[in-house]
Amino acid sequence: MTDTTTTSRPARGPAPKAAVTLTPSAEARIAELMSKAPADAIGVKLSTPRRGCSGLAYSVDYVTTEAKFDEKIVTPGGVFYIDGASVLYLVGSVMDWREDDFTAGFVFENPNAKGACGCGESFMV
User: Fold this and answer.
1) Helix and strand numbers, DSSP H then E, in the chain
2) pLDDT of 33 strictly over 60
3) What angle do CA 19, 25, 29 make, to 5 degrees?
4) DSSP per-residue codes, 71-105
5) What value does the mean pLDDT of the chain take?
6) What's residue 39's pLDDT?
7) Disulfide-capable partner of 37 in 41, 49, 90, 124 (CB 3.0 to 4.6 Å)?
8) What's the CA gap between 114 and 122, in Å, rounded?
9) Residues 32, 48: contact at Cβ < 8 Å?
10) Angle, alpha carbons 59-120-44 (nearest 5°)
């Protein structure tokens, strides 16, 4: 008697897309930050703390420990984390680094933002 049963594994699709897309300029800035990071920093983390007149703000800080629900994006210059509690506010966003004669900073194109305060410091979803 021969066994004609076959076992198949579910097909694996492409890796899921990251919640935030980093521009080459943002990746270069992360690399620069990591080159100057404190010795215990393992990466840079984006979060959306409650702050400002519209409710949420973007915050980019060094991180020293990996949290269980954080999204992890490995870039050529270092690891970029997205706070697990902030992912839903950021899905589909593009993060860029822009510099000119007067300002320098990360800029976010967030399709989830329904409004922002006049100074641009905070946003609402």
Assistant:
1) 2, 9
2) yes
3) 90
4) EEEEETTEEEEE-TTTHHHHTTEEEEEEE-SS-EE
5) 81
6) 94
7) 41
8) 11
9) no
10) 15
